[in-house]
Amino acid sequence: MPRDLILDSITIEGFRGFNDPQTIELNGAHAIIFGAIGTGKSSTLCAIEWALFGNIAHIKCLESGTQAEFVNANKIDQKAKVTLKLKGDDGDYIVYREKQATKKGSKLTFSTPAGKFEGDEAADQIFSIFGTFEDFHRSVFLHQEAVRAIITENPEDRDSALDRLFGLEKTRELMSKIPLATILKECEKLEAEKMKIEERIKGATQQVEKEMETARKEALDLGLKKNDFNTQECIQRFKEIAKETSSAAEDCGIERPLFSEPATVEDVSKGLKKVKQVIKDCRKQIAATSRLNKLQKDQKQINEAKEKLEDALVELKEATEEYEKLEKEWGTIEQIEKRENEIKMKDDNLRKERETVDSTSKLVADGIEVISKQELKNCPICDARISPKDVLSKLKTKVSITLKKRLSEIDDERNKIREELFQLDDRKNAISKAISMIEKLKKAKDEAENALGEVLQSKSKGSEILLKEAEERLSELEKELAKVGKALNKKNEILQKIEDSTEICGAIVRVLEKEAEYEKIRETFAEEDSQIEILKTQIDEMSSLYTRLQSISEAIITAHRKLAGAFISKGKKKISSYYDRLCGHPYYNSIRIDMEQRNVKGVQKNTYTIRAFNNKEGRETLISTRFSMGQMNCAALSIFLSLSSMLERRPKFLILDDPSQSLDADHKKSLVKVLEDVSLGNQVIIATQDRELEQQIETGFRPEGGYIILNYKGWSKEGPVIEISKK
User: Fold this and answer.
1) Residues 498, 500, 503: CA angle, nearest 5 degrees
2) How far, in Å, CA of 449 to CA of 465, rounded?
3) Domain Rad50/SbcC-type AAA: where (predicted)?
4) Residue 654, C-beta contacts closer than 8 angstroms, at least 6 positions apart
5) CA angle (654 as vertex; 59, 578 as ends), nearest 5
6) pTM of this prediction?
7) pLDDT band at 388 (very low <50, low <70, confident <90, very high)
8) Which 8-state DSSP code applies to residue 228?
9) Torsional sign, CA 353, 358, 359, 361
10) What φ, ψ does residue 253 adopt, rounded to 5°?
11) How far apart are CA 65 and CA 67, in angstroms?
12) Longest dimension (CA), the chain
């Protein structure tokens, strides 16, 4: 394999701005390509990369699918041709590439001291020497677009640019192409679709499932077991029920029912309905033909009449006792009335006495008035000699004491008489009421006796006799009821047993009907069930794929991080050295690339930040926040030059396209000195439009063996006008 390959010459025809063939002889010398914007400098450099790789890094062909944009529009044959001659330690290496504008791809020939190669074989040989297209741009060709990408504020662009410099752009692309987020989203989509179908099925089956579980629970509560829930068991139980029902109907005196031979659960269900109707008819027949009801009715009537008479006797006895108590305490009504007459006569005598006392009192009062008004010496009645004072005193004494006292006594006695009369009247009323109540209760007792006699159909008289007959009749009824009830109970027990068996068999029928209904619904959703299974399989497969790809992704991420870390660590000193020489910052004398992980659309990727340091004071800053564009451009150049020097490469030439963008005069001067050092082991080719940089090169660039200047003056029909001079 060749070593130390350098550019000897390049012949360009029909490529980009070149029309007629033009050969640029470099003879391995350093070259400064100078010219204004749009004079063909970049086309010359692009011809080198196109010849080697059939592509141009920073040009996107948007107008055609054949990369016709690479061919000069004025070229008559519409062919682009580039011949690249390189010299190695073992001889010449010639690359020839030709492209027809209307065709995809291009024709490639590679001549080496070992032989001539064409097509894919030629591309393989070029790869073995120059590496990949990306390797070429990482270690040989620094394009101005690459510099812009490194110093951009957009983290995604900066990260991609640094990964390209580290040779990890394919790894980054691979991580981006592992569709973890897409697979996860697809899994979620499949799961949502599955759940939607399941919810639809659940909505249809949920009520039936609930009813089925209820039916099973009810059946189990009746003592059934799960293995009883089958059609044969159900049919067998029904046959026994039908046989017992027919026998019971015959015993009750109704027509023996006919039951069809059951073959299905539906037949059993219909048969059970018929059994229930027969049982109902049996009970009606028993009620219509049994003496039990009449005996019970007779028993009830006698008990009611008996109790009514007993109650009447009790009430009559209590009323009589109450009357006798009153009579004993107060006497009879006649005695009370006699007493009333006695005290009424007394009251009448007192009344008369009071009237007499009142007359005497009035007379005395009149005498007092007469004596008071006239000074009488003789009594007006008997004409006897009197003392008016004494008479007046005696009269007043008699009126005020004797007469008043008697009147008061009369009034008190009369009040007592009135109170006693009220009391006697109350007692008389109470005794009258008691007598009335006794009469009423006697009448009620008589009515109760008559009623009991009618119920007993007895002509006997008297309560005691009737009650005795009632007791005897009730005793007879109890015996008859026991006899009739025993036979009736036996029939009812048989009917109840049939009903219990019917309920149990019906419970089995309900379970089987609900299970059949459930299965019918499930059959309706058979296609959905199949779809659910397919979705489950797809989800499992997608989940498994996600897990495997996640493991691969994690392995790639780990490798990516380690490789990038290795490059950063290995180039740390050289990057800071180049930066210090190029930038000459008054405070920050070194730079460092920091790396961390960040999530980009579900993928972990390396993200880079470029920091500047003051090693003495231990201070740091992000270059994007405190540095000028020129200072950041120095940082980008430092990174490219350090990595280029670290990589093992056979080409010993370095191409820099417009490296001085945004640099001030001091930075450009520093750049020239650095490039002079780089030229010690490399053929340096610089393209620039920067007149100030050109002047710095003319005065400060002194590489061994000198250099040539390609001065692009403008355009002609043949292509760019180039003046070549040697320094």
Assistant:
1) 110
2) 10
3) 9-208
4) 140, 142, 644, 678, 682, 683, 684, 685
5) 110
6) 0.55
7) low
8) G
9) positive
10) 85, 25
11) 6
12) 209
Q: Please tell me the predicted confidence (pLDDT) of residue 53.
A: 92
Measured CA to CA, the distance from residue 4 to residue 90 in angstroms comes to: 10
Secondary structure class of 335 (helix, strand, coil):
helix
The residue range of the domain holding 369 is 297-457
DSSP tag of 660: T
Cβ burial of 667 (10 Å; 0-12, 13-18, 19+) is buried
Q: Are residues 423 and 346 in the same domain?
A: yes
323 within 8 A of 438, measured Cβ to Cβ: yes
Query: What is the token pair recorded at 624?
Result: 């994007």
- Closest to 231 measured CA to CA, from 267, 195, 196: 267
Rounded to whole angstroms, the Cα distance separating 416 from 411 reads: 9
CA separation for the pair 226, 213 (Å, rounded)? 12
Q: How many helices (H) and strands (E) does the chain have?
A: 19, 15
**How crowded is residue 468: how many other Cβ atoms within 10 Å of its Cβ?**
12
Question: DSSP secondary structure string, 599-633?
Answer: EETTEEEEEEEEEEEETTTTEEEEHHHH--HHHHH
Are both 451 and 307 inside the same structural domain?
yes
Burial class of residue 32, CB neighbours in 10 A (0-12, 13-18, 19+) = buried
Cα dist. 362→13, 102, 334, 369, 403 in Å? 180, 171, 42, 11, 10
Mean pLDDT, residues 532-544? 90
Is residue 127 assigned to a domain?
no
Number of domains present in the structure of the chain = 2
> What is the percent of the chain with per-residue pLDDT over 70, rounded to a whole number?
93
State the DSSP H helix or E strand holding residue 94, giving kind and residue range, or none if neither.
strand 91-100
To 5 degrees, how large is the angle CA 67–CA 73–CA 79?
65
With tokens 């070429």, the residue in question is: 136
> Contact at 8 Å (CB) between 11 and 23?
yes
Residues 256 and 283 in one domain: yes
Q: What is the pLDDT of residue 399?
A: 63
Q: Place 649 in a pLDDT band, splitting at 50, 70 and 90.
A: low
CA atoms of 81 and 61, how far apart (whole Å): 18
Is the pLDDT assigned to residue 404 strictly greater than 60?
Answer: yes
Residues near 347 by Cβ (< 8 Å), separated by ≥ 6?
414, 417, 418
Q: Are 234 and 516 in contact (CB under 8 A)?
A: no
pLDDT band at 623 (very low <50, low <70, confident <90, very high): confident
Task: With respect to residue 38, please indicate whether it lies within any of the assigned structural domains.
Answer: no
- pLDDT above 90 (res 149): no
409, part of any domain? yes
Residues 264 and 385 occupy one common structural domain: no
For tokens 């006792």, name the residue.
321
276's tokens? 């229930």
> How confident is the prediction for the chain on average, in pLDDT?
86
CA distances from 426 to 284, 332, 416, 433 (A): 64, 13, 15, 10
Q: Report the CATH number that the domain containing residue 423 is assigned in CATH.
A: 1.10.287.510
pLDDT of 710: 94
Q: Tell me which residue of 25, 140, 32, 16 sits closest to 68, measured CA to CA.
A: 16
pLDDT tens digits, residue range 222-259?
Answer: 999 999 999 999 999 999 999 999 999 988 888 889 88
**DSSP per-residue codes, 304-325:** HHHHHHHHHHHHHHHHHHHHHH
Query: Would you state the pLDDT for residue 374?
Result: 66
- The answer, yes or no, to whether residue 142 has pLDDT greater than 70, is yes
